[in-house]
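We examine the record.
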Amino acid sequence: MSRGPGSGLNTMETSSILKRGVSEIIVEEEMERLLSSGRPLRLKQGFDPSLRDIHLGHVVGLRKLRQFQELGHQVILIVGDWTAQIGDPSGESQTRPMLSPQEVRENAETYMRQFFRVVDRERTDVRWQSEWFGKFDLASVIELTSKFTVAQMLQREDFQKRYKGGRAISLTELLYPLLQAYDSVAIGADVEFGGNDQKFNCLVGRELQGIMGQAPQQVFLVPLLVGTDGSMKMSKSLGNYIAIDEPPNDMYGKVMSIPDGLIMDYFELLTDVPDGELEEMRAELSSDSVNPMVLKKRLAHEIVAQFHDRESAVEAEQTFERVVQRGEVPEEIPEFPLPLSNLSGVLGSKHTMLSVGKTLYLTELPLTRLLVLLGLVNTRAEARRLLAQGAVEVDGNKVSKLNEEYGAPIYDGSIIKVGKRRFVKVVDADKRT
């Protein structure tokens, strides 16, 4: 049960909320004063429904929102339906295409379903940006833009780099920080949450509120979670993400794939393991007194249990040990029906196949098509890369240079494995009709 705002909030709790998993708070002293005031705070979280899925990178900030909700504060979730329909006019971002109103609604519904797996729905007020921007006319836009100068907008790091590099910046792009800032004015935000890459936009909101006669919002920034590649921030476009809707086995396996250097960051940002235990783990890792695999298994267990349940976490761990560590075949493998007698019609008639008895031998090019068709890879380029690395197996045999001429034999019931965790069983569709 949630407590009243500020009730029973001790120094240790305040320190944990304001320190753990926090990049920066502007202004921390004001934030502490608000927390101790006893007044329910209005916590702003906005998103443009350009994509549907939430990954663990988003969860870092969402967990903070939930902590504040448990102290009695209110989240105001702003759906950027108005700006999402404009898209990214520069064409520089592949993650912000121009969307139709229907696409915006569909994406928003999926996003919110996942959002409320972390944040308390009962203490969340959902607002659609079009509530206020839908009423804007040209005079309103001119009045808003008069509050800031072009020089101020060019202080944003990415604008600054592009300007100095002679790359185009559209006028519409310069409006984005102002539109996000006006959201804060429209809802009277006390605190705006975001990743530390949102600092500029959040500060514009703080300044605009002051100009408009409101108390300036506090800015609560969280770190950007590094993805499974160990170098770039977690992102769907980079493919280094772990979605919160992943099946337990996939989620567990992806967490186990992160570099050892990220273990403690993930523990700190994504779990409730007490700070004291985290310090012990850091000491053990630095002294080499613990195998990182042991800690990583606990981390994977904690994350799977958080988005599924403890039983699923235990089963995922057992599957990982059996399939990945001992190299056994999973007990349950998804089946994919294919017409093996007419596979050329599926893969393309221009590609040759050699039939020897009941076995179909595929040349290397159709095999890359087959891996895409089966959903084991996203592109043929990825398939070629994995084949070159020896990461593809058919019925336990690696597809290598030895059988490159004719590819790999595919039977009814053949099991194709890509990497350590991706399996598909090919079944003959002709025999099942």
